[in-house]
Each structure stands twice: as structure tokens, then as C-alpha cells.
Amino acid sequence: xxxDNFATGDSLLxxxxxRVKIVVAVLFSVVVxxxxxxxxxxxxxxxxxxxxxxxxxxxxxxxxxxxxxxxxIVFLWLFLPFTYGGxxxxxxxxxxxxxxxxxxxxxxxxxxxxxxLALIALLGTSPIISLGHALSxxxxxxxxxxxxFFTVRYLQVLHLEYDRLRDAxxxxxxxxxxxxxxxxxxxxxxGMLLIKSFDRADRIRKxxxxxxxxxxxxxxxHFELQRVDVIMMVIMMLLVSGMxxxxxxxxx
Amino acid sequence: xxxxxxxxxxxVLLTGAALTAAGVAVGLKKMDYEKIPQVAVLTSAxxxxxxxxxxxxxxxxxxxxxxxxxxxxxxAAFPAILVGVALQGLLFQFGGLTTLGVNTFTMAMPAIxxxxxxxxxxxxxxxxxATALAxxxxxxxxxxxxxxxxxxxxxxxxxxxxxxxxxxxAHLPVMVLEGVVVAFCLAFLMKVKPELxxxxxxxx
Lengths: 252, 204
Hints:
The structure holds 2 protein chains of 2 kinds.
Chain A: H1 12-15, H2 18-34, H3 38-55, H4 59-69, H5 71-77, H6 80-83, E1 88-92, E2 95-98, H7 99-122, H8 128-137, H9 142-171, H10 180-210, H11 227-248
Antiparallel strand pairs in A: 1-2
Helix pairs in contact in A: 2-7, 2-11, 3-7, 3-11, 8-9, 9-10
Chain B: H1 10-30, H2 36-49, E1 53-56, E2 59-62, H3 66-73, H4 77-92, H5 100-118, H6 127-156, H7 161-170, H8 172-192, H9 195-203
Antiparallel strand pairs in B: 1-2
Helix pairs in contact in B: 1-4, 1-5, 2-4, 3-5, 4-5, 5-6, 6-7, 6-8
């Protein structure tokens, strides 16, 4: 399992303070998610492409991610053009597609991809651990951050544990198929993984108690807002508020 | 069963976020600091399990297992699923920030209901009854989740009605599959490590 795929790099966005990135990402997503005016969305598309360019990520990797994200969107395309009332555009057999329906589906596609691109560029470029650290500065409850840290910490460990169990099954010539044997074997595999995790958690708890854990997680590196962080934040905030005003204030 | 960004309307997104915030607050309150490693390691385990591709006929599906998660974690299922959904967003770009609330709620709410509905039943003396209830738990969790996702779509716009209907119907095989897997898994756990299901119950 690969964690932090896009987080290695040395672009402007990789170096930006994660707190700034989280705040901008939240505002940007919220505005785009509820927007429906073309001016606003066009600006959003440009901004997310600009961010992607600034982050200097492998475009092929980003494109592959987008393909996966669009599975749900493709599913909606099967229905929306035909179920949204309006002027008839074309028909397939007995089904009439409307102009409004196609525009609506297109709108959703653009919004979804724009948000995901911006999120990859902004949040993908920080390791999860520094995002968690940044969240704790942004008043997210302590317990939730601890939960996130521990979950990330043990994700790879448990994936290795899973691989080991899966190898053991493979050695015994297990071939998954559509039958009760497969489902029972997977169920026992899951049960075994849960038991191993449960026992491991108990050892972790004891080890932490031995080391005097009392509900505080100390971080060794601290954030410091640099001038470039402030400048970038101001620019991005201005652009996002520009988008918002194109949506809500400036009339046609 | 994630809803992508940019699909749902603002009221639906807000409702989802508010309900999830409330559920997570209760979950965090019931989970003291000593429980964090346990909940976290089990969250990772469920995350890893959700990556398994299980063949169903010509295609393959991923397991959700939110019913089982509810039985094991109780109210801690809310923060656990929130972390899971957030990680899926960060690692694979499924879902995102504005849909975090909705996507968490549609999976965590059924988990909590399973905890209350089937928590005691699965330890029933009669193994037939216990198996039937375990199957019902897995089946019901996915049924409710897909109904909640469908409702989110319908509340966004009536034009989603057809898509929502098909979405629920398409999940029927997954419901049966999850029922079978949860039934086998619980039978295994009750035999090998019943504390796993009892520990959180005593606390919750």
C-alpha cells in the first residue's frame, strides 16, 4: 500500500504551510460544490489547473486518479440526460435526452473534477501526518487527530499482516471464485485480521502506558508562517472570493 | 458507495455534515484516551479489509462491512468511519471535503443501528438464530446505506430518482454477499475470540 503518493516533490505547493492549504481547499471546495454559474466555474477550472501546474505532479498519475473518481459520474450520465425535464435534444430508442439534462450532467462532471484536481494539488502535496498536525492547529478535536495518526501508523503494518494471511491461503491453492468456499475463507481471513489487530492494540496500549502516555501527542516539528505562505494565502483567498462574487453578487 | 463531489445540493451536504458532526461528537465522548489505539488499529484493519476484491459472478466488489464494524466498535464507529472516509479521500481521491459528512453518515448510521439491533442477538444460545441475525446485520447495513445514498440523491433533485432506484437495486447482490460474509465471520469470532465483540459492549 502506498501512502503519500503525491507528497514527494519540491514545488511551491509542496513547501506551502499545510494550514494554509487546508483552509484554501475547504473554501474552494465549498464554493465550487454549490456554484452553478458559468463565470464562477470557469474561474474555478482555471484556478485548479493553475494549482496543478504549480504542484508539478505527474499528469499521467493525476489522470489515472481522475478516471477512478469519475466512475460515479459515468453512472449518473446514464440517467440524468433522460430524466431531467426540458427541450428534446436527441433520442436513443424510446428515451429522449433533453438539452437541460445534458447541461446538468456536464455541470456536475466539471464541478466534481475541478474539486478533485484542486484537492490533489493542495492536500495531496502534504504528507498525511503534517495534514493531521495542521488540523490540530485548526481546532479539530484532539481525540480525532490521535485516531487519524494511529490509523495511518498501523495501516501499512496491517496491510503486511493481510498480505501474509493471503500468501498463506495462496500456498494452500486458494483461488477466489463465486462460491460459498470463497466467501467463508474471506470471512475467516477478515476475522483473523480483526483478532490480530485486537491483540496488537492491547500490546500498543500497554506499551504506551509504560511510557507514561496521558492523552497528549507531542509533535517535534512546528509550523511557522513564512512570507511566501502569507502571500500565497492572500492570492488564493482573493481568487476564491472572486469566484464567490461571480456566483452570488455579480448579476448577468 | 461514495457520492462524488459537486453532485449534491447545499442543504443535503449541510444536513449530512451536521448529522456526522453530532455522531462523531457522541462517538468521541464515549471513547476515552485509553481506547484510542484499539479503535484506531481496528479502523486500519477494516480499511485494509475494504480493499479486498471479492468475486461476484463476472465482476468483483469491495466489502463495506459497516454492520460488523458497528458490532465491534459501537458508537466509536462514527469517528472510525469518518477517519476511514477521509483517508480514502486523501489516498485515492474518492470523495472529498464537502461530501465527507454525507459519506460518513450514510455508512456510520447503519453501523450504529446494527449495534443496537443485533448486538445482543448475535450471541444467542441457538446457533441457527445467531447465524440468521448475523446475516441480517450484514444485509441490513448495506440496504440502509444504499437507501440513505438514494435519499441524498433524491433530495438533491427529482431527476435523480431513476439513478437512485437503480443504485439500490444494484446493491442487492452486495447485501446478500455482506450478509453471508458477516454470518461466517461472526461465527468464527464467537468461537475464537468472543471478547472482541464483548469488550466494546461493556464500555458502550
